[in-house]
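Fold it.
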Amino acid sequence: MKNKFSIHLAFAFSFIFIFSGIAQNSATKNSTDKVKVKLSCVAFYNLENLFDTINNENVNDEEYTPEGPNKWNSQKYNAKIQHMSYAISQIGLDYSPVGVAFIGVSEIENRGVLEDLIKQPALANRSYEIVHYDSPDRRGVDVGLLYNPKLFIVTNSKSYRLHTANPNFLTRDQLMVSGYLQGEKVHVIVNHWPSRYGGEDVSQPNRIAAAGLTRSIADSLFRVDPKAKIIIMGDLNDDPSNESCAKVLGAKKELSDVKEGDLYNTLWKTLDNNVGSLAYNDRWNLFDQIIISSELAKGDKNKLHLWKAEVFNKPFLTQQEGKYKGTPWRTHSGGVWTNGYSDHYPTLIYLVKEVE
């Protein structure tokens, strides 16, 4: 049997042999020579209201307690944790047998739910570690990063607070984590921008402000290193073509337009092909974006660079029947517990570099 890919494990990293013409920066499509590259998978996943069952003081979590409207009890919480851990364990396995090197997550109540998540049997052998800071969000949810310390060595992290013209507006902090992936310095900024509550026109200024903060974090990294390798990921509550992403953040659609210091949206064309990460009113959106700096988008073949980006929309994450057939299988639908996963699909990118 002839395979385009043959995958091998070595020292907890994944290696993949790719025919020339398949990988970015490869030789010619007609060549039968094989190129050996080291591959890493990184991802983002909105875990859709991953709350524990405890009514925590100063957190707006009453909806997710045994006495709340969702009757959120240990049975439901444990089912949710098992589902989310299994989903994360499967991300990237098509090409990376060791799974994701790191994954940004959103809609988590606290560090405790992440600790419960990584202890699940599906993830326990990965030895994931956590980066998390509490946010002032009015719904009591945060962002975080799970990472495999064998694959990604964290050196620094910082939480950035969004301030708007309304001093009473509270939302998620933005998380910046720096570390080494395949021996190269990488910075990841994890986001969950303000929601569309109240309508797009009313809420848009808040996302534009969030985009401005993200851009300022990226620019501060570029000032230190114009060739900084930056990955911006998160539920941006906007599509790639919206003003916050395309103009304020400046994430470009075409790779040919990307110059040093620019950002490239790895999933814009995916949405153009009617593939999204969530569905609303019979329309696909791609709020769960992964945006990379020019050095990762167009870097040298012997350094980390983008191979491909995907929406991880596997059948087990998808509603198979009923009104919402073909869309993400969420935890609740119409106030009824459906024992699903999330109302968002994960998104991921593969980064590769040639090795001798």
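Confidence is low (pLDDT under 50) at residues 1-31.
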